[in-house]
Structure formats: structure tokens, C-alpha cells
Automatic annotation (TrEMBL), chain A:
Key words, A-Z: Cell membrane, Membrane, Transmembrane, Transmembrane helix
Membrane topology: Multi-pass membrane protein
The organism's taxonomic lineage, starting at the top: Bacteria, Bacillati, Actinomycetota, Actinomycetes, Micrococcales
Domain of life: Bacteria
Basic and acidic residues: compositionally biased ranges: 338-355
GO MF entries: transmembrane transporter activity
Transmembrane segments: 21-42, 100-122, 129-148, 168-189, 220-241, 247-265, 272-291, 303-321
Chain residue ranges for the region called Disordered: 336-355
Subcellular location: Cell membrane
Name of this chain's protein: ABC transporter permease
GO CC terms: plasma membrane
Length: 355, 506
């Protein structure tokens, strides 16, 4: 009995440890600090509602980056993809006179197509995902500038505007969209065999291929899904601003990437995961919000995101080393007691066999 | 140089047991032995990569006059895109001068003089990737020699002739003799026994971590050397008693060709274990990938269990009941950062997949617990990352993941590489068991003893083609090694067996 209690207790301690959910502790710290420093503005309900709504699009963008990243593809074109979709949905309405109910599906389809193209370039063209999506990003930005003539597109239909501003029970539509996207992504990645294969393909493409996993198809599929979700974010963004704004999309790349990497240090011990990503977006946003409320200049968000990205990646590297150390520590007492009957342990593997 | 009484233990495995090696100036010493005999470990200890548990390594001379050790690995360590001149310059310690402009002419003439010592003349301005393999080897040797303040050093060449064919080997050997003539000690590691006999002043044979022979090269013949390498105790390894009935023809392949392999026929019945032997570069290590479909290949006929299988890919192979345990476990055997559970279920997730593609967590846990128990994986922790298991236990997990669905065809590449003796026996038992349950097994191994122990029949490959097929009483370690090295068809020792390789292009 007592040993069972011990293991459940250890499990809970592990789950609540700083290593596992550091972002929640950081969130609590940020919350406490700003509640004391600037209680009047920081603790207003309106501030939190705006934050929830405003960051929902960042979360969607982050999930769009994360899905291909699970299969091992960087998508640096995410900002351009969002911007492109945002302009496309506006152009289709204003310049081609389409009803928004037609324009939106077409835009989402275009997003998926862009994902397909980047997937084909990366897998069939064998171009590194970093370079491929960087190139694609530049091409998309050119297309975006051409469609919009680098100007805001105004005069969108009223109904379209209603999408992002409408709300149920005091919570805006983009927040619901975010929850739905996150739930689906979570289910597929962590609860299905497709998701299992996606993680495997990302960790060790050749090893997975030899285990019968169709790595190429998974990579392309992940980029298509990412492109589709990016287009969703683009549509919501244009709807919220009520203009096709050519400059806002690209700015989402950095916060999205930061959140994905910071999120990977949460809950799943170094694995990219949806809830870690969602949490990371809001922790970062809360920090930035607090800093803005005490009167920091607008560039503080760039600074904050940049520092957080480096810290997140650094933390995950450190965690890898720490994980190894703790593994050894866990081993030592067991090995000492059981050494005589089972002497085989790991360094055998490091010995490269003779030819 | 002198290394005396070296002992190196890895947990569960004594890699080197009281090994001594003495190399004198002007001498060429050949170091010979099977995979896992301890050659690599010894070289790593000499180089200081590992520290010996017991024993010492000493070099002659003091201060500036102390002998130094240079190792040239099989891949030579050259940058293929850079020219000879640039490659030779890489070894120089830059210091402040690193930012000074390179002195083109001086470097060129320096390089020319270095190369000229070996009596070879080639364009030192073109990228080394475009040079002939033997010329590349000379560049590597020249670089090792560059900066020697005195010639009494030690040069270790790790299988330098592996990628060369006969005429080029002569070029390399004359370069080695040249280095030795200058007063350096040369240690030459090779699998090619005929070459060893040709060049070595002295031959040191390692087997199972011990020096079993340290004899003069002159007066040694092939047969004696083969016996030293394989060991007289070869006969005592226990072959399993096979009681099984041969089943239907599971694998029927005719004229299988791919990069490095030409026109191989393989037929395996259910319950049969067929081995593939051959030295490195013979195509032995490529064949399993061709059969499994992870490398492109062509074949006149390719039938699995009586059905034609033409569009080969790993995914399709898994669906058709083929299983492949790759040789490079660290890179391809499993997903290192995923848990044992996730690795075990990866090739076939259908058994644990419920509605809407969801994984039935409890069923998966039960399955992986059962398998870790059955295959005696220690520790039996399903959630431990694959990378954190020892080599032998990793291999057991790889076996568990493939054998859990009783594959029709089991393809194994170096199944016991880097695995200690206990796990080795367990893995042999699993292979026997799989055959007993009706799998057709293909084992590719560099370990002749292993093939004799496991197989009903062994195909011996050399230079990409099958040169012999041994069964029954013919299937002995000695014969495998002879055929693998191409010694069997040389009628008298005076004819050079290497001529068989002339005109081959790799």
C-alpha cells in the first residue's frame, strides 16, 4: 500500500515540479508582480478579455507552426502565409466582389495549397525546410504586395466583420475557433496513431521509414494542415481589423515560434505539444501586457519575445542534460543493489564496434 | 611505442584482456581480428579516446623528441571539396597567423614536396574528391607526416585499403613502406588477410579481446592466419538442433541488383535461416536494405509468400509481413527519444488503434509490458526512453517490436553488434524461435561464428556478387572466411588472390 502511495505521490510531485510546468509558476510570478505594481489597470476584467481575444490568433498561428515542426519541418513562412490569406480574403471580397461566404473557403483552400507546395518542395525537392520556407515566405510577401499594392484594403462586407467581433457568453468567436483548433490538434497528435507516427517521423525520419512509416506523406500532410490553419488565422485577423492589412501577418512568426519552443518545455518533457504552446502564448502575452501597462515603450514586446525564444530553446537544451543526469541518479542505487546478477549497462552502446 | 598489459572493461564485457602491442621504428605491424575482437577499442586507447583500466601506453623519447601517434581512419578525414594544398594546410595551427593572407606559392611548393616523397605526381590544385582513392590516401598520409619534427613516430592506418582495388593498393603500400623506411612505426589494420601477408613485418591477431598471435609476417601462410583469426575453438560453439519442417517457399528472388550488388538469387523457405557473409564492401551490408525495399533495386523475380512484390517500399514491406532489424541500431533501430512503449508499437499500430484513429492507451500499455517481460528487457520500464537502455536491451526492444506480430520474413543485419554475450544468446534464441514459428530468416553478419551458429545455409558475397553458397558440413567458420576473402579459389599461395578484384570499379 505504502509503495503505491509513494509512487502516486512521486508522480504528482513530478507533475507539479518546476521543470514540468515552469510556465505556470512564471505566470503566477508575473501575475503577482504586476498585481502589486499596477493593480488598478492590471486587474481589470476588460484587460483580460482583450488579452484572451487578441492572443487567440497568436495561438492559432503557433499551432500552425507546431504541427509541421512535430514532423521535423520548420515553417518560417507562417507569418507570410497568414498575411497572404488575410489579404486574399479581402481582395476576393472587395476587388472581385465575392460574397464572404465564398471568399473564406477559397482562402482556406489556398492556405492548404500553399502548405502542399511547401511540402512538395521540402520532401520531393529535397530542399531543407528552413531554406524552402524562407524562400516561400519571400515569394508570398511579393504576392501579397502585388495583390494589395501595399495598401490597406477597406470596404469589407458587414457580415465578414461580424465574424471576429461577434461573441457568445462574453467570449469572442476567435477564442472559440482557437479552442476547436487546439482540441483537434491535440487529439490527432497525442491520441491517434497518425500523431504517434508524426512524432516518430520528426525524431528519426530514416528509423521511422524503416519501421514502415510513410514519412514523406506525413510531412506533406502536416504542412498542408499548417497552411490551412494559418489561413484560418489570416481570415480572423482581417475580420478583426476590418481591413486587409498587408503588414500584420509577418509579425506573428516570432511570437508563434517562441511559444512553440517554450511550450515544448512544458508538460511533455521536451516534446512539442498543444497545451504547452497555448500556455506559453498567454504567459508571454501577460508579461508583455504588464510591461506595457507600467508604461514601457512599444518595442518591449519584440525584446520580450526575442529573449523568451532564446531562453526557451536554452532551457530545453539544459533540460536534455538535466534529464540525462537525473536518469543516472535514478540508476545508481538500483545498480548498486542489483549489480551482481545484471551487470550489463549502457556504455556498451557507445563502443563503436570494430570493422 | 609500447603498450603493455592493457585491460579495458565495459560493463558485462571485457573488451581487452592483457593486450600488449610493441611497435618499433621502421616496422610495419598488421593488426588483425574479427569484429568485436577489440581492435577499435585498442586503437581508441592508444589515441587517448578511452583510458585503459589497467596497463600503460608509452612512447619513446622525451620533450620534442617524443614519438607521436597519428591515426588515419578509413574515411581519411579529408575535406572532399578542398584541394590537396588546402587539405594539407588544415592541420596547421593558425594562431595569430590565421588572419594573415595565405601564402599560395609557398604552400603549393610545400605540398608538392610532401607528395613527391611518395613518388606520386598528381594535380594538387583540384578538389581531393576528384582524385583517385589511393591518391587521397597519400594526401592523408602526407598530412599526418607534415609537421613531424623527427621521423620516429607511429602512424596507424585503419583499413586504408578498403576502398581501393589492386593496382591502387600497391601505390598505398609503397607509400607505407616509404614512411616505415624513414624510421616511423606503422600499424596497419585490415580485413584483407592477403594484403596483410604481403606487407606486414609482423602480424598481431586479436580475438575476443586477447592477443592470440604475435608472429613475423614472413613464414606465415593463409591457413595459419585464418586459424588465428577464427580460433581453433570454433568447433565448440553449439549449433541448435533443428527439428522443424521446411515450409513453403517464402522468399523467391532472382537476379536482385542494386547499388553495390549484382544479380543475387535468394530463396528462403518458411522456417529456414539463410545467412549472408562477406567482407566490408562486398555488398553484404546492402543486401538486406534491397530486400526490405529501403534502397531501390531491380529484380527478375521478387516473390514473397508466392505473391509478386514489385513496388517495394518499407511501408509496403511491413504490410506484407517483412520485418527488418537494421545494423546501425543507434541511428535506425529505434526512435531514441521515444519510450520503449512507443517504439514497440510503431511498426504496427493497428492492434492498439480504436475508433477515430485513437490509440487505446491501456491496451498499448499491457502489450508493451508483456513484451518487455517476454523479451527480458531490463529495466522493464515501458516509459523509459529508448536511448536510455543499454545496447543489448535496445536490441531486445527492436526484436520485440518486429517479432510481436510473427513476421513472415525476418531480415536481420548484424543482429548482435555491440551486444554483450548474455544478450547475444537471448537474441540467438529469439531468432531460432522465430524460424521455429515459421518465419523465413535472412541474417547478414560480419561474424562468421554467428552465421555458423544460426544458419542452415550461407551465401558468401564478394565485390557485389555471390561467390559461394555453403551448407551442411561445408558451413564452417574457416570456409566462410576463406570464401569471403577470396582465398578459396586461389589454387596455390603464389598466385595473388587480389587479381580477382582487378578491373572492378567502385
Amino acid at each position: 500500500m505504502s509503495s503505491v502511495d509513494m509512487t502516486t505521490r512521486a508522480k504528482w510531485l513530478n507533475r507539479l515540479s518546476f521543470r514540468n510546468i515552469s510556465a505556470i509558476y512564471i505566470f503566477i510570478a508575473i501575475f503577482a508582480i504586476f498585481s502589486i505594481v499596477t493593480p488598478r489597470t492590471f486587474l481589470q476584467q476588460g484587460v483580460w478579455r482583450t488579452l484572451l481575444d487578441a492572443q487567440s490568433i497568436t495561438v492559432i498561428a503557433a499551432i500552425a507552426v507546431m504541427i509541421p515542426l512535430v514532423t521535423g519541418s520548420f515553417n518560417l513562412a507562417i507569418g507570410a502565409e497568414i498575411g497572404f490569406a488575410g489579404i486574399l480574403v479581402a481582395v476576393l471580397q472587395v476587388k472581385l466582389g465575392m460574397p464572404f461566404m465564398t471568399a473564406i473557403p477559397l482562402t482556406l483552400l489556398a492556405g492548404a495549397l500553399i502548405g502542399l507546395v511547401s511540402g512538395l518542395i521540402i520532401t520531393k525537392g529535397r530542399i531543407d525546410s528552413f531554406i524552402a520556407t524562407l524562400g516561400l515566405s519571400s515569394i508570398l510577401l511579393a504576392g501579397l504586395a502585388w495583390m494589395s499594392s501595399s495598401k490597406q484594403i477597406i470596404g469589407l462586407q458587414d457580415g465578414f466583420r461580424g465574424i471576429a467581433t461577434g461573441s457568445f457568453f462574453g467570449i469572442t468567436v476567435p477564442t472559440y475557433v482557437m479552442v476547436v483548433v487546439a482540441l483537434i490538434a491535440w487529439y490527432v497528435l497525442e491520441r491517434t496513431s497518425v500523431g504517434r507516427r508524426m512524432y516518430a517521423a520528426g525524431y528519426n525520419p530514416e528509423g521511422s521509414r524503416l519501421a514502415g512509416v510513410d514519412v514523406v506523406r506525413l510531412k506533406i500532410g502536416a504542412l498542408v494542415a499548417g497552411g490551412f490553419i494559418a489561413a484560418v488565422a489570416g481570415v480572423l485577423l482581417t475580420s478583426r481589423l476590418n481591413t486587409g492589412e498587408p503588414t500584420v501577418g509577418p509579425g506573428l512568426l516570432l511570437p508563434a515560434l517562441t511559444a512553440v519552443f517554450l511550450g515544448s518545455t512544458q508538460f511533455r518533457g521536451g516534446r512539442f505539444n498543444v497545451w504547452g504552446t497555448v500556455l506559453a502564448v498567454y504567459v508571454l502575452a501577460t508579461g508583455i501586457k504588464g510591461l506595457q501597462l507600467i508604461g514601457s515603450p512599444p518595442w518591449i514586446s519584440d525584446l520580450f519575445n526575442g529573449v523568451a525564444l532564446l531562453a526557451a530553446v536554452g532551457l530545453s537544451q539544459w533540460e536534455r542534460v538535466a534529464g540525462r543526469a537525473s536518469m543516472i541518479r535514478r540508476w545508481l542505487p538500483r545498480r548498486r543493489t542489483s549489480a551482481p546478477e545484471k551487470p550489463e549497462q549502457s556504455p556498451v552502446e557507445e563502443r563503436t564496434p570494430a570493422h | 611505442m609500447q603498450a603493455a598489459g592493457i585491460v579495458k572493461d565495459f560493463p558485462g564485457l571485457r573488451a581487452l584482456d592483457d593486450v600488449s602491442l610493441r611497435v618499433q621504428g621502421g616496422e610495419i605491424v598488421a593488426l588483425v581480428g574479427h569484429n568485436g575482437s577489440g581492435k577499435s577499442t585498442l586503437v581508441k586507447i592508444l589515441a587517448g579516446v578511452y583510458t585503459a583500466d589497467q596497463g600503460s601506453v608509452e612512447f619513446d623519447g622525451v620533450g620534442d623528441q617524443a614519438a607521436r601517434l597519428h591515426i588515419i581512419h578509413q574515411d581519411l578525414g579529408l575535406v572532399a571539396e578542398l584541394s590537396t594544398v588546402e587539405n594539407l594546410g588544415l592541420g596547421a595551427v593558425p594562431g595569430v597567423h590565421g588572419f594573415a593572407p595565405t601564402r599560395g606559392r609557398a604552400e603549393r611548393s610545400h605540398a608538392l614536396s610532401l607528395i613527391a616523397r611518395f613518388g606520386e605526381a598528381f594535380d594538387i590544385g583540384i578538389p581531393v574528391g576528384r582524385l583517385a582513392p589511393a591518391q587521397r590516401a597519400i594526401v592523408a598520409i602526407a598530412r599526418a607526416l607534415d609537421g613531424w619534427v623527427h621521423p620516429r613516430n607511429v602512424l596507424i592506418l585503419d583499413e586504408p585499403s578498403e576502398a581501393l582495388h589492386a593496382s591502387e593498393v600497391d601505390v598505398l603500400f609503397s607509400a607505407m613502406r616509404r614512411v616505415a623506411a624513414d624510421g616511423a612505426g606503422v600499424v596497419f589494420i585490415s580485413h584483407r588477410l592477403d594484403e596483410v601477408l604481403e606487407i606486414a613485418d609482423r602480424v598481431v591477431v586479436l580475438r575476443d579481446g586477447r592477443v592470440v598471435a604475435d608472429v613475423a609476417g614472413a613464414g606465415l601462410d593463409h591457413d595459419a592466419l585464418v586459424e588465428f583469426v577464427t580460433g581453433a575453438s570454433a568447433e565448440e560453439s553449439v549449433a541448435p538442433v533443428r527439428t522443424l519442417q521446411r515450409g513453403e517457399q517464402m522468399v523467391d528472388i532472382r537476379g536482385l541488383s542494386g547499388v553495390g550488388v549484382r544479380r543475387i538469387d535468394i530463396g528462403i523457405r518458411a522456417g529456414e535461416v539463410v545467412g549472408v557473409a562477406g567482407v566490408l564492401g562486398s555488398g553484404r551490408d546492402i543486401l538486406p536494405s534491397l530486400v526490405f525495399g529501403s534502397l531501390p533495386s531491380t529484380a527478375e523475380r521478387f516473390d514473397i509468400a508466392g505473391h509478386e512484390y514489385s513496388a517495394r517500399s518499407p511501408g509496403e514491406s511491413v504490410r506484407r509481413g517483412l520485418a527488418f532489424v537494421p545494423g546501425d541500431r543507434v541511428r535506425f533501430g529505434g526512435i531514441r527519444s521515444m519510450s520503449a512503449r512507443e517504439n514497440i508499437t510503431l511498426p504496427d499500430l493497428r492492434a492498439v488503434t480504436g475508433p477515430f484513429g485513437s490509440i487505446r492507451v491501456r491496451a498499448e500499455l499491457r502489450l508493451s509490458h508483456d513484451l518487455l517481460d517476454r523479451y527480458d528487457v531490463r529495466p522493464a520500464r515501458v516509459e523509459q526512453a529508448f536511448a536510455q537502455f543499454s545496447g543489448g536491451n535496445q536490441q531486445k526492444i527492436v526484436f520485440a517490436k518486429w517479432l510481436r506480430n510473427d513476421p513472415r520474413v525476418l531480415i536481420l543485419e548484424e543482429p548482435t553488434q555491440g551486444v554483450d554475450i548474455g544478450a547475444k544468446q537471448a537474441i540467438y534464441a529469439e531468432i531460432d524461435g522465430a524460424a521455429q514459428r515459421g518465419a523465413a530468416v535472412l541474417v547478414c553478419s560480419s561474424d562468421a561464428k554467428e552465421l555458423v551458429r544460426l544458419c542452415d545455409r550461407v551465401i558468401v558475397m564478394r565485390d557485389g556478387v555471390a561467390v559461394a553458397e555453403l551448407t551442411g558440413a561445408q558451413l564452417t567458420e574457416t570456409d566462410l572466411v576463406r570464401h569471403g576473402y577470396g582465398l578459396a579459389d586461389s589454387v596455390s599461395p603464389s598466385t595473388n588472390p587480389r587479381t580477382a578484384r582487378d578491373g572492378e570499379h567502385r
